[in-house]
Every structure is written in C-alpha cells, then in structure tokens.
Specification:
Blueprint (H helix, E strand, L loop, with lengths): L20 E8 L3 H12 L4 E4 L15 E2 L6 H9 L1 H22 L7 E9 L3 H14 L4 E3 L10 E10 L2 H9 L4 E2 L4 E5 L2 E4 L3 E9 L12 H4 E12 L7 E4 L6 E5 L2 E10 L6 H12 L4 E13 L5 E4 L7 E5 L5 H16 L19 H15 L14 E3 L4 E3 L6 E3 L4 E3 L9
Parallel strand pairs: 1-2, 1-10, 2-7, 4-12, 10-17
Antiparallel strand pairs: 3-6, 4-6, 5-6, 8-9, 9-10, 11-14, 11-15, 12-13, 13-14, 16-17, 18-19, 19-20, 20-21
Bound molecules: flavin-adenine dinucleotide.
Flavin-adenine dinucleotide binds next to α1, β11, β15 and α8.
Length: about 425
C-alpha cells in the first residue's frame, strides 16, 4: 500500500540522535509542516533541529494528493458566516502568500510543479456554489461559475480558479530537508520548559514547534476535543481520460481528481476514522462504471485532522506553555496551510508582526457545533464496553476491514492487526 510518490524516489537518510544537543528551535515532526517550518526559520538565521519519530514524510505528507490551491472546499463562505469578511480576507492572504512562496521555491526545486486550473464542485446544491462565489467576490478572489465540468459526474455547479498548482510532495520536501539538521528514528516522549526528552537523548531548545500532525500533549490546548480525523482513499489509474485540472467535491465524502505523470489520481471513499465508509471499493465501483478499461497502478489511504471551524490551528500551543508552538488541523488542505504555518511561526519566533496570525490562533473560541459532536463521540466510545481499547484516552477501537487495522473513532489513532501503533495521537501500542 505505497503511494505513487514513494515509488522510484531516492529518500535522503538522516542519523538518529546519539547525544544530547542544544538548539534555538526544536521542531517535532518531519512531515511537510515540520520541514517547511525548519526551512523558513533557518533562512531567517535561526538555528533549528528537527526530530522525526520514524522516517521523514512517512506520515500523511507521503500519501497526500498534493494540490496547491486557494480553494479549500467552500471555506470562504463558511469563514464569512462565522467570523466576517475581514477574517476571510486574512485567510486568503495567508494562503496566497503560501502559493507565491511555492511558486518561487519550485523554480529551483525539481518537484514536477505545474500550474493547473482548480475546480470545486457540488453535486447537491447550486446555492452552496453561488454562496461561495459571493464570498469570493467579497474578498477579491476571481473565479468562473460553471454548470458542467469535463468529468463523468453530474454537478449542480462549480467554481474554477486559474493559476493554481500541483506538484510531487516528496521531491519537494526531500530537497528542502537536505538543507536541515534532522534526526530520524528519534521520538519525542516529553516536552519540558526549555527542551524535550526523546527516546535517544535530550534536546535543549528555547522554543519548540509541535508539527506531529495530531499534537501529542493532552495536558495543554485541548486538541483532542478540538479535532477529529477524517480518512480518505486514493487510486492511481492508467487507461483513463486524464483531467485537465484539479477537481474536488465540496462534500467531504465526495471525490477528487488530479493527474500525475499520465495517471489519474482518484480520491474519495472518505469517512471519519474509526467509522464505516466507502474506501477503495467505492472508487473501484466508480472506475468500473466510468473507465471500464482502467488499470490500477497503486492504492493507498491516509487521514487528516479536522478542526471545529475548518481552519488550521497555527500559533502558541497553549497560553500555559508560551514558548511552544503548533501547526495542525489542516482539514485536508495542508500544502498551502503548512506553508502559511511556516511563515506565521517564523515571524512569531522572530518577534515580527504577522497580520494573518490572528485568524489561525489555536486559542480561538471552541463554540461550534462540531465541539459537541466530538464530545459525544468520545463519551460514547469511552463507555462502549468492548476490547481492545485505545491507549490515548481509553476509547473502544473499531476494526477497519478494508485496511486490516484497529482504528479509534474518537481521535483517529490507528494500530496494526497486532496492535502496533500506526497513527497518532496515541503514543503507545494498543491495549487488549
Ligand atoms: C487523502 C488526502 C489527500 C490530501 N490532499 C491534499 C491536497 O491535494 N492538497 C492539500 O493542500 N492538502 C492535502 N491533504 C492534506 C495534507 O496532505 C496534510 O494536511 C499534510 O500532509 C499534513 O502534514 P503534516 O506535516 O502536518 O503531517 P505528517 O506528514 O503526518 O507529519 C507528521 C510527522 O510527525 C511525526 N511524529 C509524530 N509524533 C512524533 C513524535 N512524538 N516525535 C517525533 N516525530 C513525531 C510523524 O512520524 C510524521 O512523520 C490531503 C490529505 C488527505 C488525507
């Protein structure tokens, strides 16, 4: 179950931490968020060390679909309704700066970067698409409204934004990583004031960035109540027509399409981790009907952290631990949002004002209906009297037949059939 990104690529290797070290900023986690934070900080003259529990980009980043776009589902209408136009403008500004930074960096990095048109469509409601268009007009984002797209699906409406991009996430991340001080197979066990303890030694640091996908310190910030994980499945197909552009259904359980190197990357089958959903079967059924000659080259799956208001948490981890920062909750839009995080955290750590930081503040209100859903989910699974249990907060695990894994419906930790930890926020193997 390897993504196409992991095929035929030379992975840079990094040593394991062998002795205690000291640095200005410690970055925990070697996915795209951690690597971009390290790169931006280092370019601003700050000494950093990045530690990765396993191999860099072995988590979500190695399994993404790598569309670089300002169109994050129907986000702008949502932000305007919840927070007003100014905040939607701030969100857009941060994402635009991220897009521009990719464009500049990719001129010198061989990462198959390619400008593409981006489409978000709805199969259910033209009203949702028109409302999003109205939001675009308020914040100054140009788009074309369409009622038909060149894909074998019936839509009610779509928005097309030009000059977006796609790339190869591993070629990009590995190239930046070569410039950083990284220790692989080095897992942070505990963070203390002024540093962290890993399974290989101690690291002293004035500041720390937690870029572990789902933050692992439960004591602060309440991230386990502010986020859940949503899992999606991808097929790489040959012998199909190739989409000229990148397409995403506005419904979080809908399909996504992009092309890479003569292959169609078809995403979907999504569900809350630990719940039932369509998985690869749904995608194969779609391919059988619409692309009868298709040849499946690869299939894989991954998941992302979903926040209460669909915007990431970027900034101080918790007011109780002021020198620790976080970049998480990318809601399946972690390419531009992790670049936005790297820019915002670089500015915060350098003591510079960043006008967009406020909109992503992790300490913003939790008064959203999703908070009650997350609480209820945790409660129900906590009192469900079955084994095995998740070592994170003790919820009952559910067996995922498609992937032969034990998955936690509360916060999305996952374990192999034999109980070995696959995905955080749990930090240990499962309890029987
Ligand atoms: C199916 C799918 C498709 C997607 N497609 C897109 C897309 O087209 N465009 C887009 O913008 N976004 C997309 N996303 C979202 C994007 O891929 C993610 O938001 C992003 O890759 C997350 O990166 P990350 O660095 O936060 O996490 P990761 O890549 O998971 O990195 C976190 C790292 O931290 C390490 N770690 C964890 N705990 C510790 C510890 N205690 N000590 C040390 N290291 C630790 C892990 O081993 C891991 O390597 C998609 C998501 C999904 C699920």
């Amino acid at each position: 179950m390897k993504s196409i990104w992991a095929e035929n690529i030379q992975r840079p290797k990094f040593e394991t931490l062998k002795k205690d070290v000291k640095t200005d900023v410690l970055i925990i986690g070697g996915g795209i968020a951690g690597i971009l934070c390290g790169y931006m900080l280092q370019k601003s003259g700050i000494d950093c060390v990045l530690v990765e529990a396993d191999k860099i980009c072995g988590g979500v980043t190695g399994n993404t679909t790598a569309k670089i776009t300002l169109q994050h589902g129907l986000i702008y209408d949502k932000i305007i309704r919840k927070y007003g136009v100014d905040r939607a403008k701030m969100y857009l500004k941060a994402q635009q700066e991220a897009m521009d930074t990719y464009e500049k960096l990719c001129q010198k990095i061989d990462s198959d970067y390619k400008l593409q048109e981006s489409y978000v469509y709805s199969c259910n409601s033209v009203y949702d698409i028109e409302s999003e268009l109205a939001a675009y007009e308020k914040i100054g984002l140009n788009a074309n409204l369409l009622y038909d797209i060149p894909l074998p699906i019936k839509i009610k409406g779509a928005l097309l934004v030009k000059n977006q991009a796609q790339f190869h996430p591993l070629k990009f991340c590995f190239s930046l990583a070569k410039e950083l001080t990284i220790y692989e197979n080095t897992k942070v066990i505990e963070v203390f004031k002024g540093g962290a303890i890993t399974n290989r030694g101690k690291i002293l640091a004035e500041k720390i960035i937690v870029a572990t996908h789902f933050p692992f310190m439960n004591k602060y910030g309440g991230y386990f109540l502010k986020m859940y994980q949503h899992r999606s499945y991808v097929l790489a197909l040959e012998n199909t027509p190739l989409p000229n552009g990148m397409y995403v259904d506005a419904d979080e359980n809908g399909l996504s399409f992009r092309e890479y190197n003569g292959k169609l990357l078809l995403g979907g089958g999504s569900h809350r981790t630990g719940k039932k959903g369509g998985n690869w079967n749904e995608l194969r059924q779609f391919a059988n009907i619409n692309y009868p000659n298709f040849k499946e080259i690869a299939h894989w799956a991954t998941q992302d952290c979903m926040t209460l208001d669909s915007m990431p948490y970027i900034g101080v981890y918790s007011r109780k631990i002021p020198n620790v920062y976080v970049a998480t909750g990318f809601n399946k839009w972690g390419m531009t949002s992790s670049m936005a995080a790297a820019i915002i955290l670089r500015d915060m750590i350098n003591g510079r004002q960043n006008d967009c930081a406020e909109v992503f503040s992790p300490s913003r209100s939790v008064m959203h209906s999703q908070f009650a859903v997350n609480m209820a989910e945790t409660l129900v699974n906590f009192i469900t009297p079955t084994v095995p249990r998740c070592p994170h907060l003790g919820c009952a695990l559910k067996y995922n037949k498609a992937e032969h894994s034990w998955d936690c419906p509360c916060h999305g930790s996952r374990f192999t059939k034999d109980g070995k930890l696959i995905e955080n926020p749990a930090t240990d193997d499962k309890r029987m």
